[in-house]
Amino acid sequence: MFDSLSERLGSIFERLRGRGALEEKDVAEALREVRVALLEADVALPVAKDFIARVKERAIGQEVLRSVAPGQQVVKIVHDALVETLGGAGQDAALDLAMAPPAPILMVGLQGSGKTTTTAKLALRLEKREKKRVLMASLDVRRPAAQEQLRILGEQAGVKTLPVVAGQTPLDIARRALEAARLSGFDVVLLDTAGRLSIDEQLMAEVADIHALARPIETLLVVDALTGQDAVNTAEKFKARLPVTGVILTRMDGDARGGAALSMRAVTGAPVKFVGVGEKLDALDAFDAKRMAGRILGMGDIVSLVEKAAEDLDLEKARRQAKKLAKGAFDLDDLAEQFRQMRKMGGMGAILGLMPGMGKMKKMVDAAGGFDDREIKRQEAIISSMTKAERRKPAILNARRKIRIAKGSGTSVQEVNKLLKAHRQMADMMKKMGKGGMKGLAGQMMGMGGLGGALGGTPGVGDPGALLKQAGGGEAQGSDEIDFDALEKALSGRGPMPPGLGGPPGRKK
Amino acid sequence: MAKTFLSGLFGRKKPEEARTDEPAPAEAEAPPPATAPEKRGIFARLRDGLSKSSKKLSEGVASIFARRRLDDETLEELEDLLVSADLGVAAAARTTAALARDRFDKEVSEQEVKEALADVIAASLAPFEKPLVVDRARRPHVTLVAGVNGAGKTTTIGKLAAKFRAEGLSVMLAAGDTFRAAAIEQLQIWGERTGAPVVARAVGADAAGLAFDALKRAQAEGTDVLIIDTAGRLQNRRELMDELAKVVRVLRKLDPDAPHDSLLVLDATVGQNALNQVEVFREVAGVTGLVMTKLDGTAKGGVLVALADKFALPVHFIGVGEGVDDLQPFSARAFARALVGLDQDDETKGEAA
């Protein structure tokens, strides 16, 4: 979602980086542009001003201008300031649930910010990851069918919801929810409230009453990432009435430039804990300020990608596969498995968006019509139409078999051939990589990049695999490959972000 | 001095001030409950909504005696304040430039600056102040309603249905949001409230097929207006936008001119992303007009000014509350005055100053 802001900043910084010596006015000029870029990204005005002031002070105060690579230094300062604004490193996204159960969590926000969907997502996350027993209750007696909506979402997520009793007030419902949660031994009770305007005194008093009654351990403000300057007003008004302990930003999968994400911490003083990144119920990610800063500056989000992979991939299966790959055996079953995993991770577009230096490539692909993830399904269909023997040994595929497969999958022989060719190329690549000693997850990921050939059906994108390499090399990394060492370090939690901005963003506190 | 002068202009407190300042006493006097809204004029509603937060300051601190030279520094601060009303950098710069053209370096009062700004903004919005006209010759007149998630589409449709019903038109609703949980139920409740039949299918059904059926049925029954709800979608989700394009395509099989109105619902809190929204939705769903919802909050919806500059699309309605009659025709002048925190009835005072 930060593509546009990162592009703007990127072009500003490119000019700075290229310069041997910088004068104060160069920095000032660049910062003016940064300011406009921030405002156009809907960063709250006071936050943008403060940000610029901080960067300016440091850029001029630190003898940056006389250093060897002043441009790089300025970029680094901006990066650090971004991390601070987003909430600083080491901020804990985890919810504080340390109390005798049931722990009440109160969800508040404006109408249409996405509270109900987010409540269900959060409940699912708590059940799935933290193994908590969660009860959800809708206190929204205003919007037609709001309670029904939460009930349905609960069914979809497999999370219990408090049975709806018509005619109850929000306070009644809250009381009943707490009671029910206590009696039935739930760990967490999520209270979804009606959307309210921050200036609606009656409703703000109501939510304050609910807070007083439920004494929630977390009060989460749900904010739409598409919000403009009003984010400040909303946050301030809610904070004035409720001790907001965290923020959840929704619709981060949109193409808003993410100003709200940048502003929220500064305005509320409360950390952004989660971000909503899609319509599906598992599309709720933990928020990490440092990674987000990296993404804004176009460094990609390889850590998110790896985490996503680690979570979504079946590790055991991946290991088995990696072993097989190392031996150079990569059959069509393996390819089908790759397709499945790609889809699980949100499709090619989502994967690309997370990879460092892929911003440019993603744009090229989007310009060419984007990745059509239905294409992946078609490829899967082709493989599904093969017999087991054919999948293990594609060499036995003759013309007759191909015609049968094409018919069975509703495709054409040409498409079957294309898939087979892509598979051969990938198998070759895997073999090479196997020798190179790449293993485990890294191998998996490279495999995804190699899928390019199979996706050749997308018009104008001849071979995304090749593009991938090209774009990866063209960016700041200056190497042809993604740096897996850095990746592994980042994964283990010790190392810095992957390279990109002339060195790790050395954090000081 | 400069600070109070200008913050009075738009009334948003500086964050530092806000922090030391506990819930303002002015807020403690509870406004009329939203559940039982009394009938008030559009100006009163708009003003209540748009300038509630700004009133205290603009009335109190910045007094009418404060006069100040309209120099570069002042203009820059003005521009900042317009930016914080979501006009965006370009539209804010254009607006202040227009203000500077005939008033630069003159002594001005707060009231004068507000009036002048409102005039500039109203002038740029006036051409887009167009009511939604139902062509009674068409049966049905098809209105498609689209927007991102949570913009207020379904609620807007409920209000629109009530409005058309009050005008004596027969209305049919198509529950085209087959994705979001309980969206169909929500529209059905609006159907009951307004006496409009609702065409619905199960959750997960094909929205285009549903729209087709609804139009067919409305044609058969000779309904005056068919309003089609759609699922909220972010404009960068290509597959969802394709789905919306399909709804339009399918409608045109039955009526080549349908939809006769394609409304994009925008939430007043939206920032500069509204520009992307309009651009993409216009391309995909042939948006013919805008509706801005939730103007009864603190959000001022200033992005409309930027949208007018760029797309020149009519603004049909604004939503100023949750009640059935809280959908009002868009008035450029009222909107502009509320945006800068002017009372509607101050007009004469302003001229005199």
From TrEMBL, chain A:
Q: Whom does it interact with, and what assembly results?
A: Part of the signal recognition particle protein translocation system, which is composed of SRP and FtsY. SRP is a ribonucleoprotein composed of Ffh and a 4.5S RNA molecule.
Please list the residue ranges annotated as the SRP54-type proteins GTP-binding domain: 271-284
- The name of this protein is Signal recognition particle protein
Any single Pfam family the record assigns to this protein: SRP54_N
Notes on the domains: Composed of three domains: the N-terminal N domain, which is responsible for interactions with the ribosome, the central G domain, which binds GTP, and the C-terminal M domain, which binds the RNA and the signal sequence of the RNC.
Q: Which residues bind GTP?
A: 109-116, 192-196, 250-253
UniProt source species: Amphiplicatus metriothermophilus
Write the lineage as a comma-separated list: Bacteria, Pseudomonadati, Pseudomonadota, Alphaproteobacteria, Parvularculales
Task: Tell me the gene name.
Answer: ffh
Membrane topology type, per the record? Peripheral membrane protein
Keyword Nucleotide-binding set for record: yes
EC number(s) stated in the UniProt entry for this protein: 3.6.5.4
Residues crossing the lipid bilayer are none
This protein's source sits in the domain of life called: Bacteria
Give the record's GO CC terms: plasma membrane; signal recognition particle
Query: Record's PROSITE patterns?
Result: SRP54
UniProtKB keywords: Cytoplasm, GTP-binding, Hydrolase, Nucleotide-binding, Ribonucleoprotein, RNA-binding, Signal recognition particle
GO term, biological process aspect, one: SRP-dependent cotranslational protein targeting to membrane
Compartments annotated for it: namely: Cell inner membrane; Cytoplasm
TrEMBL record, chain B:
Region annotation Disordered: where it falls in the sequence: 1-42
**SMART domains given in the database record:** AAA, SRP54, SRP54_N
Composition bias of kind Basic and acidic residues appears in 13-22
Q: Name the Enzyme Commission number(s) assigned to this protein.
A: 3.6.5.4
Gene Ontology CC annotations of this record: cytoplasm; plasma membrane
Q: Carries keyword Zinc?
A: no
Oligomer and partners: Part of the signal recognition particle protein translocation system, which is composed of SRP and FtsY. SRP is a ribonucleoprotein composed of Ffh and a 4.5S RNA molecule.
Family the entry assigns: Belongs to the GTP-binding SRP family. FtsY subfamily.
What is the name of the protein in this document? Signal recognition particle receptor FtsY
This protein's species is Amphiplicatus metriothermophilus
Q: What is the lineage of its organism?
A: Bacteria, Pseudomonadati, Pseudomonadota, Alphaproteobacteria, Parvularculales
